[in-house]
C-alpha cells in the first residue's frame, strides 16, 4: 500500500489513530457494494427472473442453476468468478470503466451456465440494477444520518459500470450523500488515487488528511491511503451477519 495513513484491518480501535493525526475528519467516503449496500442472494436474483417469465421448474433444477451462477460470477455484486473464461478476460479487466463492457462481462459469465431461455441472461443483468435487488446494511441509514447531523460530508466512491443513484434514492439514502465518484463516469477505478481525488474535489476540495475512506476491499479501497486519507475496512457479509459494522464510523468522527 502506498504512502499516507496506514489502512487497518477494521474500524475498532481506530479512534486513537485518527487523534494522532491531529486533524478532524470532515468527510467520509464509502464504497457502495458490500459496504453500504448488499446485493440480493443469488436464489432470489434468479427467482425474480423466473417469476417474471412465468417459468416453473423443479426446485432441484433451480438450485443447480443458482449454484452454477454463483460459481460463474455472473451476478454483479455477488461472488467473483471461480474461473475466468479466456474470451472474457479483456472485458472483465475493463468492466468498471464502461457500461457496455460491464454488461458484456457479466452476461458473458452468466452464459457459461446453460439456462433454458437465452433472454434470461439479459433479464438477470437488468435485474441487478433495480433498487429492489439491493438492501442497505442495517445501520447504513443511522450512520449516514449521524454524519449529516455532525456536519460531515459524505461521498460514494465505487468501481461500477452503472448508476447506483436510483438505488440510494429508492431506499431513502439519496439525500444523505453529497457526491458520487463512479469509475465508469470518470474512466478510472480504485485503487487509482485519482478516483478518490475526484470525490474530494466534488466535496469542495477536502484535504485528504481530513477524509476517511470506508470499504470492504483492502486492495481497491486501500488506494485512498496513497492520498493521505485514513482507511478503514468492513466485512463483505450478508446484512443479518453485519448489523452494526458501520456504526463505529460515528465514533471516529464524533
From TrEMBL:
Listed transmembrane segments: none
Molecular-function annotations in GO: hydrolase activity
Gene3D superfamilies to which the protein is assigned, alphabetical: HAD superfamily/HAD-like
Listed Pfam families: Hydrolase
Hydrolase recorded as keyword: yes
Keyword Transmembrane helix: no
Keywords: Hydrolase
Protein name stated in the entry: Hydrolase
Amino acid at each position: 500500500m502506498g504512502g499516507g495513513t496506514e489502512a487497518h484491518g477494521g474500524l475498532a480501535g481506530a479512534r486513537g489513530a485518527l487523534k494522532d493525526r491531529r486533524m478532524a475528519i470532515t468527510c467520509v467516503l464509502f464504497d457502495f457494494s458490500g459496504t453500504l449496500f448488499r446485493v440480493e442472494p443469488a436464489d432470489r436474483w434468479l427467482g425474480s427472473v423466473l417469476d417474471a417469465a412465468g417459468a416453473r421448474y423443479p426446485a432441484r433444477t433451480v438450485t443447480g442453476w443458482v449454484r452454477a451462477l454463483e460459481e460463474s460470477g455472473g451476478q454483479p455484486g455477488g461472488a467473483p468468478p471461480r474461473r475466468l473464461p479466456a474470451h472474457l478476460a479483456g472485458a472483465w479487466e475493463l468492466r468498471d470503466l464502461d457500461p457496455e463492457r460491464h454488461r458484456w462481462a457479466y452476461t458473458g459469465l452468466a452464459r457459461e451456465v446453460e439456462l433454458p431461455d437465452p433472454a434470461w441472461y439479459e433479464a438477470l443483468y437488468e435485474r441487478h440494477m433495480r433498487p429492489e435487488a439491493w438492501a442497505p446494511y442495517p445501520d447504513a441509514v443511522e450512520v449516514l444520518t449521524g454524519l449529516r447531523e455532525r456536519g460531515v460530508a459524505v461521498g460514494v466512491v465505487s468501481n461500477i459500470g452503472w448508476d447506483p443513484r436510483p438505488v440510494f434514492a429508492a431506499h431513502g439514502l439519496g439525500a444523505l450523500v453529497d457526491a458520487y465518484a463512479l469509475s465508469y463516469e470518470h474512466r478510472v477505478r480504485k485503487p487509482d488515487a485519482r478516483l478518490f481525488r475526484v470525490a474530494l474535489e466534488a466535496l469542495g476540495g477536502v484535504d485528504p488528511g481530513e477524509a476517511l475512506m470506508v470499504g470492504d476491499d483492502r486492495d481497491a479501497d486501500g488506494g485512498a491511503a496513497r492520498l493521505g486519507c485514513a482507511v478503514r475496512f468492513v466485512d463483505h457479509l450478508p446484512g443479518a451477519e453485519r448489523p452494526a459494522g458501520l456504526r463505529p464510523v460515528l465514533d471516529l468522527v464524533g
